[in-house]
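Sat 14:20. Reprocessing the chain from the morning session after the first attempt stalled halfway. Input below, unchanged.
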Amino acid sequence: MDEFAKISVEEISKRDILMIIKALEYTGENTKISSFLELKNSIVKQLCLLSNTTEEEFITYLEKSF
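Finished this time. Tokens:
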């Protein structure tokens, strides 16, 4: 199980990444459980660092892929 300490996003499609982000956002807003929004923000922040873009640019890129 130690091999799951970190997970790579290489095998996750852009569509799935967008679905995860939107699901966390929706759940956080509708349940008022801040942990969902914090996780969403953390994931987006890390992905933006990897892609050297802003959050808005990154989300727009994912949305335009469909």
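The chain is about 70% helix and 0% strand.
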